[in-house]
Structure formats: structure tokens, C-alpha cells
Specification:
The protein is 0% helix and 55% strand. It is built from no helices and 14 strands. Strands 3, 4, 5, 6, 7, 8, 9, 10, 13 and 14 form a ten-stranded mixed β-sheet that branches. The chain has a two-stranded antiparallel ribbon with strand order 1-2. It has a two-stranded antiparallel ribbon with strand order 11-12.
Length: 177
């Protein structure tokens, strides 16, 4: 059976389903100038199109797709690709993209000013931007209480585009960026 609840409170619209065993496709139309938070858990692909605002997307087992976005996006999934195409990016807003099993594929306007912070274990990092790339060096830390030294190797790759700007973080384990 379908278990779907939709309500509005304090100018916030909530659409939720408690149907764990039944696949449900939900299509919601909202005004274009709209901040949006969308999430799914099991086998739930999320597709968002034509939004101007802040977008936050979380999926556990599903792909995330966002196209014709003017604003900012934060997207996280465990199993699935993340694909975001921007028409325009809100200036000075950091963004983050994370998946364990899947590719991170982002398309930004050519004039974006950002610092990309990227990390993948089992994939490649590819870019169409000219960027000043800097790979992080090992960091040595000393624990004053025990007197031990700790060396941390954090293999993030950073690159400034068009002089740098807010940080855009991209991370995955199995997949390309």
C-alpha cells in the first residue's frame, strides 16, 4: 500500500513516504526560486531540474542528478553517481559532493572562481578547467600529553580555478571525479 504524506508548515513543504517495501515515484513541482532539501533511502534516485536556490540532496542507495541549477548544491550518496549541471553558481558559497561507489560529474560555468578540493581512492580526477594544482604534503602532529608524533597523509588534491574562491569539495572511493 502507498503511505504518502504531504504538508506545509511555516512556509516549508514536506513530502514523505513511509513505504519501505513499495517503490514509489513522486514528482513535485515547486517555484523556480526555491531552496530545496531532498532525501531518499532505498533504491531512490533523485532528479532535480530548474531550481534557483540552495539545494541539499541525500540518498543512500541511488543516483543524484541535478540540471539547470542556479545557486548551490550539496549532494551525498553512498551507492550512486552524482551529476550536477550549473547554469549559474552563487558566489562565495562552499559546496560538497560525496559518494562511496560512483562518479562525481560536475559542470560549472566557465567563469566560476573556486578552489576545488578532490579525493578519490580507486578512480581518476579529470577537469576541463586550467587550474593551479597543489597536492597536500604529509602533516606532522605532536601529542603533547603522551609525547608521541603522528604523521597524517591526507591525499587531497587542491586546485584554484580563475584565481580561486570558495571551496568545492569532491570525494569518492570507487569512481572518477
Amino acid at each position: 500500500t502507498l503511505n504518502l504524506e504531504i504538508y506545509e508548515k511555516s512556509n516549508q513543504v514536506v513530502v514523505q513516504s513511509g513505504s519501505w517495501n513499495t517503490k514509489t515515484n513522486v514528482e513535485v513541482e515547486v517555484p523556480m526560486d526555491f531552496d530545496l532539501k531532498a532525501s531518499s533511502y532505498n533504491d531512490g534516485d533523485i532528479q532535480i531540474d530548474n531550481i534557483q536556490g540552495e539545494v541539499e540532496i541525500t540518498s543512500y542507495n541511488g543516483e543524484i542528478s541535478a540540471e539547470s541549477i542556479s545557486g548551490s548544491v550539496v549532494a551525498t550518496t553512498y551507492n550512486g553517481d552524482i551529476k550536477v549541471i550549473f547554469n549559474k553558481v552563487t558566489e562565495n558559497v562552499p559546496m560538497s559532493y560525496s559518494t562511496y561507489n560512483g562518479d562525481v560529474d560536475l559542470t560549472f560555468p566557465a567563469n566560476i572562481k573556486a578552489t576545488f578540493k578532490m579525493k578519490t581512492q580507486e578512480g581518476e580526477i579529470l577537469s576541463g578547467f586550467d587550474m593551479n594544482v597543489v597536492k597536500a604534503n604529509p602533516v606532522q602532529k605532536k601529542d603533547a600529553g603522551s609525547g608521541t608524533y603522528k604523521v597524517v597523509i591526507d591525499e587531497w588534491v587542491k586546485g584554484d580555478v580563475n584565481g580561486g574562491g570558495p571551496e568545492i569539495s569532491m570525494r569518492n572511493y570507487n569512481g572518477d571525479i
